[in-house]
Amino acid sequence: MTGKDHPTSSSAVVDLKNDEIALERLGYQQVLHRSYSLFENFSTSFAALYFVGGVRVTFTTGIAAGGPLAYWTSYIVTCVFTFITAAVIAEVCSAAPTAGSIYLWAAEAGGRRFGRLFGFIVAWWSTTAWTTFCASNTQSTVNYMLSELTVFNVDFPTDTSSIKFRALQWICTEVMLALAAWINLGSPRIFRYVFWLSTGAVFLDFILNLVWLPIGAHETYGLRTTHEAFMTTYNGTGAPAGWNWCLSYLATAGILIGFDASGHVAEETKNASLNAAKGIFWSTVISGVLGLTAVILFLFTTPPIDVLFSYDAPQPFVPLYAVALGRGGHIIMNILSIVALWLNTAIAITAASRLVFAVARDGEEGQPRNAILVVWGVSALITCTILPSAVAFTSLVSAAGVPSAAAYGLISLGRLTLTRKEKLDAKWSLGRWSKPFQLIAVIWNAWVVAVLFSPYEFPVTAGTLNYAPIIMAIVTIFAVVSWYLTPADAWLRQELIEQVAAASTEAADS
């Protein structure tokens, strides 16, 4: 919606004009429809994080690594340090709210000497992260669907070692991914409802679990005791005891990665220098707090650990719901989970396409529609790796969270060291907490990357090897080579970086 679409108040017109002026100071003209309010911007990251779905997907991983005691304590630690990281990124976004902002934030943080290199690296990292996330999130959606084969005892393999199962998984994933891309091609006025539906689905999913699951668990297999839910330890990874505990961060850290989505739609958000920053920070905080509630809920309402791991389904929560809620109840929960995850993918494609759009625009010229098709094409290609091997696909998507965490850390490191004397002109400012928070963000995200690089199971074999470090290294090499070979005036020109830096610090210096 723009001022031409509907009557607007004089203050709204002034806000839109101020947004255009602020964007022009950063070196860009208004091309995208600036129609999103604070709520739609908040919903972009809130839906991308989808805390209930994130907890369900990572729950068994978290329990295997240290047991319930490690899982909930590591989640609290994750919340605290991720909130701090989100605050750092929100402040940077407030100073430079443009589409696909993250690589520009990195370029500005790198200063004159390393800015362009940082921009190339983070552009490659973030594009890898978001396209692989679109593919893996769609596969997670399909896993809910195909888990019904187990619940209804259909004579069809559900093990990823079966080519028949992987073929069905691939077909369903490609169809769902195409539908998520297709809905992105609609007008911004229509797509606004996707944000509302997605946020509503997330809250409905959470509320139904909070009310319905404890009743069903109590009447069937029984609730866990406080000791079982909070104090039990477990080693399902085969790692040494200390590292087994650390691997719980494989689950907890991944739940809250992706909050930069609100920054990618900043150019479509009204009063973006304030609302995009609020969207990043508050979507992370609310997702984290409610996610902790979901973690505690599931610790009390899931069956004993050995029983949970005995569920032979791509998504263990589907047979769990069938046992606790009955076939009718579990179908309701499963449909809701599928819809919420599919909407989650649609919004992830929005964020990814704005990143690709910005990358194209900083070279020659780009269009959001073309960027959507590019994201869909790349994600669909990644999904094809399901066919030859489940390990191949898992290896690709295991790297989805690493580039984002690395990007957050690199931006924080640049702001802390290379451009530490340049105070940001941010409406959403951390003030004197800015430097301490940047230091914490550097250390925390370095730890997250280290854990995400670790093998998931020990002893390590070809089937259990985590290829994330290899994939990350390859992507980074491509980034450095493209930086070296691309002429300085062909992409991410130095004058553009300096213009963004000047606009980001202009008012603060004055």
TrEMBL record:
Source taxon at top rank: Eukaryota
Keyword Transport assigned: yes
Pfam family, one: AA_permease_2
Topology versus the membrane: Multi-pass membrane protein
Signal peptide boundaries: none
Molecular function per GO: transmembrane transporter activity
GO cellular component entries: membrane
This protein's UniProt keywords: Membrane, Transmembrane, Transmembrane helix, Transport
Transmembrane segments: 46-66, 72-105, 117-138, 167-186, 193-215, 241-259, 280-300, 331-359, 371-390, 396-416, 437-455, 467-486
InterPro entries listed in its UniProt record: AA/rel_permease1
Chief place of localization: membrane
Cellular localization per UniProt: Membrane
Protein name per UniProt: Amino acid transporter
Native organism: Aspergillus heteromorphus CBS 117.55
Taxonomic placement: Eukaryota, Fungi, Dikarya, Ascomycota, Pezizomycotina
